[in-house]
Inverse folding.
């Protein structure tokens, strides 16, 4: 396993802050095993299908890798209300799949975000979806399906690691925005991790200047990754002082 097929670094338009460019390191890994996947996630890499990536911008550190401290996380009153409000929603945990129902929901969500936040239009079809969210799930990739009766209303893509959950991508039906499904899915991840004695929720990149990612800073306590450790070094995670978080 762990057959490295391609590795490269590209300079491209920044995904998070308008007007900037970003330098991104990519790896395409066929049949990545659990141990190596966890090794990369712990060092700030993200996985989409068989592709792993990490920003390596020399003069910018806006992309901050964070992970929620599950053991010390306490659900607030407002979070308990969110969970109660969506208690009727049925969930199914299973291996990732791609169906026309998935694609229709994914497209509806992206059209909504294009209008709401100016997201770029992208080609959405079952092949592209499969390559990003189904291919490469191996022994750790799962999807959590959310149903209102028999209607699919949200999908949460995750990796379940030996010590935590890596959040990959979440999308939902905008008609159900009143249920705060994004927050609900994150709270369910934390509850699942607590029940299964997992220490961390790896949330990917927190970018304070990016409206679509700034919400991640609300889930405290969390730890931040120091720098961009290479694979030969132990990653150092630390808790920011409250003055640093503001």
């Amino acid at each position: 396993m762990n057959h490295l097929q391609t590795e490269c670094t590209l300079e491209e338009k920044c995904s998070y802050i308008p007007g900037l460019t970003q330098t991104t390191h990519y790896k395409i890994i066929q049949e990545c095993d659990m141990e190596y996947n966890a090794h990369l996630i712990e060092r700030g890499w993200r996985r989409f299908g068989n592709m792993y990536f990490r920003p390596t911008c020399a003069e910018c550190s806006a992309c901050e890798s964070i992970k929620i401290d599950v053991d010390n996380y306490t659900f607030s009153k407002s979070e308990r209300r969110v969970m109660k409000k969506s208690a009727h929603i049925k969930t199914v945990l299973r291996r990732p799949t791609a169906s026309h129902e998935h694609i229709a929901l994914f497209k509806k969500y992206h059209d909504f975000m294009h209008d709401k936040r100016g997201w770029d239009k992208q080609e959405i079809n079952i092949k592209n979806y499969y390559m990003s969210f189904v291919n490469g799930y191996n022994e750790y990739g799962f999807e959590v399906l959310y149903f209102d009766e028999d209607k699919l209303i949200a999908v949460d893509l995750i990796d379940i690691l030996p010590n935590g959950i890596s959040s990959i991508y979440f999308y939902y039906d905008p008609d159900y925005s009143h249920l705060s499904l994004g927050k609900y899915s994150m709270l369910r991840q934390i509850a699942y991790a607590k029940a299964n004695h997992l220490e961390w929720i790896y949330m990917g990149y927190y970018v304070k200047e990016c409206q679509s990612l700034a919400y991640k800073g609300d889930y405290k306590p969390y730890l931040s990754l120091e720098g961009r450790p290479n694979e030969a070094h132990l990653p150092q995670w630390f808790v920011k002082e409250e003055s640093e978080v503001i």
The helical segments are 34-41, 77-85, 100-117, 126-134, 181-195, 242-245. The mean pLDDT is 93. The radius of gyration is 18 Å.
